[in-house]
Amino acid sequence: MIFKKLFGCFIIFFTVSLLAQSSSNYSRIGLGDIEYSYSSRRLGMGQLGVSVADADFINSLNPAGWYLLSKTRVEFGINYNGLFISDDNTKRYSGEAEFSGFTFAFPVSKDYGIGVALGFIPFSNVSYLSVQNFEFPVSPQDNYKITYEGKGGLSKLFVGSSYKLPFNLIVGAALDYYFGNINYNSEIEFASSSNFQAEYVRTYRPKGLGATAGFITPDLSSVFNSPSITDFRFGGSLSYFSNLKTDTLLTSNSVFIIDTIALAKTEIEIPVRINLGTSFVLSKEYLLSFDYSYQPWSEYRFDGRNLSGLRDAFKFSSGFEYRPDRQLGASFWQQIIWRAGLSFEQTQYEVNNEGINQYSVSGGFSFPVGFENTLDIGLQYALRGTTKSNLFKENIIRLNLGISLGEIWFVRPEN
Asked: How far apart are CA 139 and CA 118, in angstroms?
């Protein structure tokens, strides 16, 4: 019953909050802001954690991380993104709530490390709103403004499995399907009523397949010869993207007519993404992870052409998690899981010969909701961009609220 109530609260919050809108001008370039992870746990630990596997959380970055699953798990959540934007003259705030993703996973064989997972998660997000005013003091009737707005993004459906090889080397693979709808609007409005406003809408609808493969090494903590260091592992994953078939549509809207100006098909080429990391546990309660992600966005192509404003992107991340030992009779507060993380990201954006970098600090909690079920909260504060070269500086606040549920399914009862 409590699961149904929590799920109902999520639906209500999600429905109401979708009426808001965020505005990041940098996301108009390429496919927009890249989503590294959908979950509250990953957000609280710096968003990566490619070498971390859990029995009670689903790793969406590395399919090999599903080998520890002990129960059927369901995870879903929502994000709230708040954005403070400033340049040399103005400051403003906007916010937006969005569905952060859904994953479902279950164990098949503990001995062989076989876990199966599927899910629907975001890959990129386009969300901006910019207004440019043109004023003529001598003839104010000629004043006009142009509004640029973008909305949409790319999403991913995936299904895959993990497997334990000899010597406890874990591998995993997933088949990915990418699809999305991205709209770029340009609207001109005149001060004079004798001129009519006009709107141009450019729409991209990409879709195509991809694949993700990953590994996690066996426990190498014996090299330290220390009882306080356990579960020391390396991990990595690689995501490959086939050329995404893309329908493009350009329409012109006015008070008189909606006209389709151009309709065509093309392809989008997304470069591979590589993730590498290591993690270990101290004193059986403290997990530390260190990760690196790289994607050469300078190789991104639309219709066979490179896109200006893009460069190679990479991200360094470190995460910390305190998970107390489960003890019979422990109080609610003694079961809370605590997290923190730091990251530096060289984003794929380069505008006016100025690279856009991002610095982030994050934290989070997992509150027990029954046995092996948690209500997860992740919070991140990020600083991105600069006011130099007529650019924007962004202070980003991201709040993620998620639920992770575990049940014993698909287990055949004994006679």
From this structure: 61
Coil vs helix vs strand at 297: helix
Give CA–CA dist 157/145, Å, rounded.
40
- Kindly report the backbone phi and psi dihedral angles of residue 28, in degrees, each rounded to the nearest multiple of 5, phi listed first: -75, -10
Write down the mean pLDDT value for the chain.
85
Alpha carbon distance 210, 242 (integer Å): 6
pLDDT by residue (tens digit) across 290-317?
999 999 999 999 998 988 889 999 999 9
Q: How do the domains of the chain map onto residue ranges?
A: 2-407
- What are the pLDDT digits (tens) for 26-74? 888 889 999 888 888 889 998 898 999 888 888 889 999 999 998 899 9
CB neighbourhood size of 298 (10 A): 14
CA-only gyration radius of the chain, Å: 23
- What is the tens place of the pLDDT at every residue in 205-261? 999 999 999 999 999 998 888 889 999 999 999 999 999 999 998 887 765 666 666
Pairs from 108-114 (Cβ < 8 Å, separation ≥ 24): 108/161, 110/70, 111/164, 112/163, 112/164, 113/67, 113/68, 113/162, 113/163, 113/164, 113/170, 114/67, 114/161, 114/162, 114/163, 114/164
Q: What is the pLDDT of residue 258?
A: 63
CA-closest candidate to residue 261, choices 199, 179, 190, 180 = 199
Copy the structure tokens of residue 5: 């109530």
The DSSP secondary-structure symbol of 270 reads P
What CATH number matches the domain at 2-407, 2.40.160.60, 3.20.70.20, 3.40.720.10, 3.10.129.10?
A: 2.40.160.60
What is the pTM for the complete model shown?
A: 0.86
The pLDDT, as a whole number, for residue 20 is 40
End-to-end CA distance of the chain: 29
pLDDT at 15: 34
pLDDT surpasses 70 at 19: no
Quick one: the chain helix, strand, coil %, rounded to 5? Answer: 10, 60, 30
Map residue 333 onto helix, strand or coil: helix
Q: Nearest 5°: phi and psi at 283?
A: 50, 30
What SS3 class is residue 99?
Answer: strand
Task: Determine whether 75 is exposed, middle or buried from the number of CB atoms within 10 Å of its CB (0-12, 13-18, 19+).
Answer: buried
